[in-house]
Amino acid sequence: MGVAYAALTFGIPATIYVPSNANQLKIEAIKRLGARVVEHGRSYQDAFLEAQRNCGEQTFVPAYDDADVIAGQGTVGVELLADVAAFDTVIVPIGGGGLIAGIAGYLKQRLPRVKVVGVEPVGAAAMTASFDAGHPVTLDRVQTIADGLAASRPGDICFEIARLCVDELLLVEEDEMLRAIRLYFEWEHLLAEPAGSAALAALLYHYSPSPGERVVVILSGANVTDEVMLRALKSR
Q1: How confident is the model at residue 236 (pLDDT cuts 50, 70, 90)?
Q2: CB 4 within 8 A of CB 33
Q3: H runs (alpha helix) in the chain
Q4: Same domain for 132 and 181?
Q5: How would residue 13 be classed by pLDDT, with cut points 50, 70 and 90?
Q6: Residues 38 and 128 in one domain
Q7: How many other C-beta atoms can be found within 10 angstroms of the C-beta atom of residue 129?
Q8: What does the mean pLDDT of the chain come to?
Q9: Range of the domain at 22
Q10: Count of CB atoms situated within 10 Å of the CB of 158
Q11: Is 190 in the same domain as 127?
Q12: Is 11 helix (H, G, I), strand (E, B) or coil?
């Protein structure tokens, strides 16, 4: 959606490759911005490789494993320092790793004492597997309702930054993300997609702050489908 918006702004054509099971709300939003959408494969990696094969002379923009994309996502860290008076820990969802690489890379340069915690779905824990192996690992299978976190492999650049700057990784279950969606809606009147709710799910069910610890959670997306929202509202 970001690439489609930028292309519209500058009056240039854009083709966006997505897997066939991509969130339809996101696909529709991309099309409304004027970009052409090509559906290929069942995973981000399938779509990524197909885009590489067909980019020709066009500029190729990866979803996360790109220094400029990581820097752009790191502006969330810039906003945190500008908007939040003081905090000790930030919890960030992880898909391919661009968001956490950008945030962690920036914060560790400015405030080395801040703890950065990454969160993955149990069914898409590619960064966790890569940390355990000491190098980027490609999962054989990814299964999660959090389509925004359904990367089968972290980016190479993302992994190297995360390895140096991320303090802890946590895993969340599907039902925990659904409950977090419901609580965002009930407590704050905010819509969160599963990927966006992962950080709150981690704080509620897996992370135990120390007394007085000030924790920031990143809500990274609001493209929740009717089906998922209904499941979330019924969750307890």
Answers
A1: confident
A2: yes
A3: 2-10, 24-32, 44-54, 67-73, 75-83, 98-110, 126-133, 156-165, 174-183, 194-205, 226-234
A4: yes
A5: very high
A6: no
A7: 16
A8: 95
A9: 2-61
A10: 32
A11: yes
A12: coil
50: buried, middle or exposed (CB in 10 Å: 19+, 13-18, 0-12)?
middle
Task: For residue 107, give every residue at least 6 positions away whose Cβ sits within 8 Å of its Cβ, in sequence order, or none.
Answer: 77, 80, 81, 90, 114, 116, 165
Nearest C-alpha neighbor of 101 from the set 63, 74, 135 = 74
Domain CATH for 181: 3.40.50.1100
Mean pLDDT of the region 50-61: 93
Q: CA 209, CA 213: separation in Å to the nearest integer?
A: 6
pLDDT of residue 22: 87
- pLDDT, position 85: 86
For tokens 């299978």, the residue is 141
For residues 19 and 48, give the distance between their C-alpha atoms in angstroms, rounded to a whole number.
9
Q: CB–CB of 215/161 below 8 Å?
A: no
- In whole angstroms, how far apart are CA 102 and each of 1, 64, 105? 18, 10, 5
pLDDT grade, residue 21 (50/70/90)?
confident
b/e for 222-235, b at 16 or more Cβ within 10 A?
Answer: ebbbeebbebbeeb
